[in-house]
Give the backbone structure.
Amino acid sequence: MASTTIEQIREEIEGLKKAGTYKVAPVLASAMGPVVKLADGKEVINLCSNNYLGLANHPEVLRGAKEALDKFGNGTASVRFICGTFTIHQELEKTIAEFLSTERATTYVSCWNANEALVPTLLGESDAVISDELNHASIIDACRLCGKKVTRLIYKHSDMADLKNKLEEAKDARRKLIITDGVFSMEGDLANLPEIVQLAQQYDALVAVDDSHAHGVLGKGGRGTPEHFGVKVDIITGTLGKALGGAAGGFIAASEPIIELMVQRSRPQIFSNALPPATAGGALAAIKLLQNNPQLINQLQENVAYLRNGLKELGYNVIDSPSAIIPIIIGDTAKAIRMADEMLKYDILITGFGFPVVPEGTARLRAQVSAAHTRSHLDKALEAFKALREM
């Protein structure tokens, strides 16, 4: 073993600790829900989960997963194009496409894989990708995977004038792709899709939206930011690991030619096993639950508004947005992390984020709301925030 290398790595980890960016994640001893049990037995109100509709442990989702497990077994033991496509995958993909009103969809083991499949497969020599500077890390890595053959341009966050400048710079590219988060995970704000779509039409560009934090959250039917704004985009990527069941898996939904290209050429699908049947079955049940129970979205939005308004009344600096992500700007990284630790003493589980995850001086607590939170859960959280405000 290369002992020098191991010592270097150990020093790197110590550096993370000194910088205050070393992460110690809570360990849960219960199913995911609005209240969870920690490994030490302590029960806490969970304000940091992506379980936006409270479906991760819903009986119908569990039933769908169990039925798929019983019928198809534990896994495919194969990639899709060999013998790893089961009828449950086809049913799930058909349901996703119908739900999002696209011609077709295909699934991956995560949305990270879906994004890394999309960009390098769609783009080649003489093409250009234009990306928002605050896009998710999976989009950033997907753009990097294109290498030097693709022109990579980054526009300032939600700055439409800068996006236009970048499109002008790339106007001679063979194929142009604008890619953006629908809901930005650290800010909780929404992409300006109406103007993005308008600019895309002007410059003959495709628009791809990662709507992982918007499906089940925004739009009358929970179909995400395009439905919220009343616009159509060319490509939608998303996850089955947040509102739509909370397990794992991702997808691309788009026109028939784009999806067929992904099936034929995208490396994450060609070289990775398909979704485990139980994951597909649970996600399928979750989407059907959402379609049959649109009141879940109304309940979520009521909870979001209640917590956000309560935090404002307490004097906290809260970023406005209709999303289920509520960033509470603290400023100092050490203070944000200390506040998260203090919240745990009040039986509230919330995460503090600081530099380099967010820009220096904008450290924050990020509250994430679920339709499964009761008013008493939210009131208890506000009481804890009030106590911290008075410290």
Summary: The mean pLDDT is 95. The chain has two domains: 21-50+294-389, 59-292. The chain has 15 helices and 14 strands. The first strand starts at residue 35 and ends at 37.
